[in-house]
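Fold this sequence, please.
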Amino acid sequence: MLSSFNLDKTYQYLLIVLAFLIPLTVSGANTIIVIICFLWLFSGDYKSKFNQIIRSKLMIASIVFYFLHVVGMLWTEDINWGFHMLHKMWYFLLFFPILYNISKSENFQYCISTFLLAMAITQLMSYLIWFEIITPIKHSSVLNPIPFMSHISYNPILTFAIYIVLHQIFFNKNLSNLRFSIYSFFSIIMIINMFITGGRAGQVMFFAMLSIFIFQFFDGKKIKSLFAITIIIPAVFITAYQTSNLFKHRVESAVKDIMTYSVKSNTSVGIRITYVLNSWEVIKENPIIGIGTGDFPTEYKKINSVRTPEIVSSTNPHNMYILVLM
């Protein structure tokens, strides 16, 4: 059996590997997560671990959030889908508290470095595809050069990586000139990549992140922050709009979908609007305790067949706030 010292070292190595795999492979990252959780569950000393976890309000919130789904099983009709949702949400009950318990601040930089290394590999592959130097792999294409995952996942992860690099550039006073130059170049490359790939949710997240970063840079000075935001955000948006055909097309198609929703709802953005509107009807009918953890597919199908039968029903409204509220 591993000693507590060796087990702690094992955790740190696994976390570094996990940070590296997140941008590259979902299945690989999930495998490491399962290994971490398995080791933790059979490692003993549960009392001290439990005490550490419950001292964190964030971890308590994570666990309570999960158990709200468990309570919702009491009045759900579709038990099988309910268990499916509990399985999807297990991170909140187990992995996040375990991650909080085993993480060491002194090793944080190693995780960040390996994560950024993986992002650098991703960027290299993305640009090689974009410049047609290599053949597109998996689901990527020259028009949407995302090599290892879908655009739904990629652009939010890219936003997180951009934030980390910007934070290093502007807040790390011990940054060497070489690392400053590398990070500066890397940030530019990633920001450009944000707009030659097609994840609109991630792009919205990028502008939100940039606004938050500006507030942090000015240390909460609201007037300066708001002034900088009104200059920087439109400047970045207009530059991206003028220089990236894909971003321009995605923006224009989103605007068109919204403007023509009343006459043509079966579009990319139109379907998402429909999900929200139909879900809201269900929420109004069940305003206090909701429909239960497993009943979204059934209840949404009922309302969809009445209000928007021309649109295929869904098992997820593509909006986690709406899903949890239902």
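The chain has a mean pLDDT of 94. Residues 112-256 form one domain.
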